């Protein structure tokens, strides 16, 4: 979504779903995985909205929808591509919106070639290195910006870094605005390229690829298009069912294209709600746990000789749009990090920042552990021995460390792998030969500490400590603050230049109580930022001269007026339905992003029914139900003068203010590693060939060649997909230790259809062994019509459902579904393909010990 619209966060908020005329839920089981937010889907249904669920399984979400559409796992782009083709071929796009607010009229370079021309590849592909040189994807007579601090070819840069994550707040950069053909007839304009690209995604092809009957698909297409346009809006909801694929970023791009064509972005009851997982998944990307980002989606600089701050900013900042102020955001961050030490004469300590040398994601880290290059590891609220793809590789990596720190509520599998992991049972690892020194540090629960969550709609909400943590349990804030304090004390007398970045850190947080707990509110205030007159109220106040500090520019304003805005709890009866007085949403407390697009180019609401933000000519300002996602005093008739930069270069008709051209991108000329348009590729492990192209899978996907990570071939005939249960939570550390939840879901199970059960001799309630080239696991059999067989390319495809919460510790124990998965990744964001893989299944329990290895070897 960042590449498409300018920011990677949800474009809308959960309560606004109630205003939708149609809701398409795909890649999500919202009723079970986000049950609190699902109340607004039910509210929409009560108001007459049509609710559609597209998912391989029939779930609790499906049960309350108007239509459930089962499809083959991993074929979402074919389905969405069919919807896009339906819109384009039948003139169903919201043409005025598309012309004004998207790049449909932009003209592409002559040397761009599409997958239709190259049998599944785009121009610029280099097969020997398996990546794209993206230069030919640009607009005519323009160029994409180089990577921050890198001067290699665009393809080289894209291979080395996960650029799509950077666009969480600020789209990819183009150096100048494109040439336009507003008649949309030029053969190289985006609109015509889009029509050609999706021409083959017919209802018949959707049926052939996805296994969705043509009649069912057309019902969806008619519902979505009839409920979009000037008077009506459709909302799109997705979750990890879209992201955890080798084409995960492109799944979301397809949804973004559909919503932009229908005019559903920036408008009430529309948008795309990217459902985040548990409490602060959004926050952990905003203030990132990702290797390639700094706070606020500022890219981590890459290793490059003589790289300085100006070179870094010039390489990545757009000259137009709000991302053109990147220097102010970066300098203010450096001031927050190093305080008085960050000065103009030392480049504001820019050289203190680490430099990326390539992919440092979690799966590359595992490979480095196994190779002996990574010696120590912190696991904080994560249990990769159960929760990550190919658990065996995770455990082999942990077993090869010098030291491991685990902070969690319980002794999880990643802390005890050395004595009770599956590889101990099979003899692949021996406890006495594992040299890893494990430090288990008990963690405080969220009820036992102050702090904020940033939830699925970019909303910061403060939680106050309810009780003291038990015994030695401490908050993460306590742990890292005191760890940093002790390290700084040890380095206090050091004269080694490499210690200077740590010694000069601004590390002066106030503490309180017997345990010297740091003030979480003081950290929030630092994140918000300060200027000469105290706490800042908006990121537009940030300066590039060192006069302001800010720990995360998109959060600037959360401590406006010196008050914790995340703790706002204004009753609904005292405010409008948008509820700006409950918590605080980034950026600037806006609840629907790009909401200038809720008005037409003249600033008038597209319709009174969908009135949201509009131009008040008498007052000379944008007004409405929400904080305008636009410069408040910029009139619709403003046109930038020649040479204008940053936000001044955007016209009064450019709603997508984080994009360099102010438009939603139907075609992405920059920002993605694997194509400017979504294309159906098969999952890396699939029982069928790609019916569209000779190119079977994503040509830029990432694989890891290792004996512990073999990939399946056609000897594994069945598809399986993993998912979560309402009664258990992620890898199980918070739920399998609780008796009530363990009683509700007491055993690891597999869902299979009656037809598959008959074909393989499976008995309801009995045992089954599920096998891949990595390992085999055993599960109780649940025979159910919820996993319907599908007919694809003339053959029946059976799918198996596996919840992923089980492991060897707790009250409810069992094998881990994620042990079956391989490590194969989306090339943009390095996320694993966990939602579509292949396996075999047979009745009975799996072999024990070394016999398990012999079974898997037979399949290999």
TrEMBL record:
Keywords: 4Fe-4S, Iron, Iron-sulfur, Metal-binding, Oxidoreductase
GO biological process: anaerobic respiration
Annotated GO CC locations: cell envelope
Location in or out of the cell: Cell envelope
Biased composition (Basic and acidic residues): 149-166, 631-642
GO MF entry, a single one: oxidoreductase activity
Domain Molybdopterin oxidoreductase span(s) in chain numbering: 15-411, 442-481
The Molybdopterin dinucleotide-binding domain, residue ranges: 719-836
Alphabetical list of InterPro entries matching this protein: Asp_de-COase-like_dom_sf, Formate_DH_Act, MoPterin_dinucl-bd_dom, Mopterin_OxRdtase
NCBIfam families on file: formate_DH_Act
UniProt protein name: Molybdopterin-dependent oxidoreductase
């Amino acid at each position: 979504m960042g590449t498409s619209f300018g920011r990677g966060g949800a474009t809308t908020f959960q309560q606004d779903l109630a205003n939708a005329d149609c809701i398409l839920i795909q890649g999500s089981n919202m009723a079970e995985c986000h049950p609190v937010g699902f109340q607004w889907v039910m509210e929409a249904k009560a108001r007459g909205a049509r609710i559609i669920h597209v998912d391989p399984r029939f779930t609790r979400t499906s049960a309350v929808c108007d239509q459930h559409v089962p499809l083959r796992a991993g074929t979402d782009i074919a389905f969405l591509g069919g919807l896009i083709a339906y819109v384009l071929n039948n003139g169903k796009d919201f043409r005025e919106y598309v012309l004004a607010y998207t790049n449909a009229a932009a003209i592409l370079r002559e040397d761009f070639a599409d997958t239709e021309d190259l049998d599944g590849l785009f121009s610029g592909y280099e097969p020997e290195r398996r990546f794209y040189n993206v230069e030919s994807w640009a607009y005519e007579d323009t160029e994409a910006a180089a990577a921050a601090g890198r001067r290699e070819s665009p393809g080289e840069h894209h291979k080395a870094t996960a650029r799509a994550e950077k666009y969480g707040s600020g789209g990819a950069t183009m150096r100048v605005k494109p040439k336009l053909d507003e008649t949309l007839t030029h053969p190289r304009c985006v609109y015509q390229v889009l029509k050609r690209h999706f021409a083959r995604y017919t209802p018949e092809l959707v049926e052939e690829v996805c296994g969705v009957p043509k009649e069912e698909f057309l019902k969806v297409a008619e519902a979505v298009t009839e409920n979009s346009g000037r008077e009506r809006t459709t909302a799109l909801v997705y979750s990890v069912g879209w992201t955890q694929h080798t084409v995960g970023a492109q799944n979301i791009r397809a949804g973004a294209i559909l919503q932009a064509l229908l005019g559903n972005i920036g408008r009430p009851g529309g948008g795309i709600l990217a459902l985040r997982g548990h409490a602060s998944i959004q926050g952990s990307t905003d203030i990132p746990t990702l290797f390639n980002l700094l706070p606020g989606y500022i890219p981590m600089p890459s290793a490059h000789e003589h790289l300085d701050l100006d070179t870094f900013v010039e390489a990545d900042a757009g000259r137009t749009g709000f991302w053109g102020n990147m220097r102010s955001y970066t300098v203010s961050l450096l001031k927050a990090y190093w305080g008085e030490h960050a000065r103009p004469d030392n480049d504001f300590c820019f050289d203190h920042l680490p430099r990326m040398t390539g992919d440092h994601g979690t799966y590359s880290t595992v490979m480095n552990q196994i190779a002996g290059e990574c010696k120590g590891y912190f696991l904080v609220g994560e249990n990769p021995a159960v929760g990550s793809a190919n658990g065996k590789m995770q455990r082999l990596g942990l077993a090869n460390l010098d030291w491991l720190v685990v902070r969690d509520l319980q002794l999880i599998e990643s802390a005890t792998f050395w004595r009770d992991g599956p590889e101990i049972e099979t003899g692949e690892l021996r406890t006495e030969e594992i040299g890893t020194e494990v430090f288990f540090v008990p963690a405080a629960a969220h009820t036992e500490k102050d702090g904020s969550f940033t939830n699925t709609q970019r909303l910061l909400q403060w939680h106050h400590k309810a009780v003291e943590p038990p015994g030695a349990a401490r908050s993460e804030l306590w742990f890292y603050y005191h760890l940093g304090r002790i390290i700084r004390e040890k380095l206090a007398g050091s004269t080694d230049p490499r210690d200077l970045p740590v010694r000069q850190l601004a590390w002066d947080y106030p503490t309180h109580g017997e345990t010297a707990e740091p003030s979480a509110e003081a950290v929030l205030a630092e994140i918000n930022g300060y200027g000469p007159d105290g706490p800042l109220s908006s990121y537009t106040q940030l300066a590039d001269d060192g006069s302001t500090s800010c720990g995360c520019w998109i959060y600037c304003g959360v401590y406006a007026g010196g008050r914790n805005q995340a703790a706002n709890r204004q009753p609904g009866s005292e405010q409008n339905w948008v509820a700006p007085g409950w918590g605080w949403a980034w950026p600037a407390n806006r609840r629907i992003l790009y909401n200038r697009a809720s008005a037409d180019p003249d600033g008038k609401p597209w319709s009174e029914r969908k009135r949201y933000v509009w131009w008040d000519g008498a007052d000379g300002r944008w007004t409405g139900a929400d904080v305008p996602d636009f410069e408040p005093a910029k009139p619709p008739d403003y046109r930038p003068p020649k040479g204008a930069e940053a936000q001044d270069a955007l016209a009064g008709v450019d709603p997508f203010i984080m994009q360099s051209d102010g438009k939603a991108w139907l075609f992405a000329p920059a920002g993605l590693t694997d194509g400017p348009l979504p294309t159906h590729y098969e999952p890396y492990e699939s029982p069928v060939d790609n019916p569209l192209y000779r190119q079977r899978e994503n040509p830029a996907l990432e694989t890891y060649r290792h004996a512990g990570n073999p990939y399946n071939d056609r000897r594994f005939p069945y598809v399986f997909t993993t998912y979560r249960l309402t009664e258990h939570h992620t890898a199980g550390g918070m739920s399998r230790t609780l008796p009530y939840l363990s009683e509700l879901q007491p055993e690891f199970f597999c869902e299979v259809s009656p037809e598959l059960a008959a074909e393989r001799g499976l008995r309801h309630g009995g045992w089954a062994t599920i096998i891949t080239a990595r390992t085999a696991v055993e599960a109780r059999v649940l025979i159910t019509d919820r996993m319907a067989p599908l007919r694809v390319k003339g053959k029946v495809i059976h799918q198996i459902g596996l919840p992923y919460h089980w492991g060897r510790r707790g009250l409810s124990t069992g094998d881990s579904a994620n042990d079956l998965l391989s490590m194969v990744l989306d090339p943009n964001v390095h996320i694993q393909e966990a939602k579509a893989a292949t396996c075999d299944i047979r009745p009975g329990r799996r072999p024990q010990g070394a016999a398990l290895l012999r079974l898997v070897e037979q399949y290999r």
